[in-house]
Amino acid sequence: MKISLIPMTDDMYYIYLKEYENDPDLYLDKDKYKPYIYSTE
What we know:
- With 41 residues, the chain is mainly α.
- The protein has one helix and no strands.
- It has one helix spanning 10-18.
């Protein structure tokens, strides 16, 4: 099995960002947390 790195394509970014979620536990100031809402624009 060979592992290799490849550049991300536009389609790969699209799939990644479509399923992306911010983790509220990473924010020290919980008032600044805003859920990410995917938009195709």
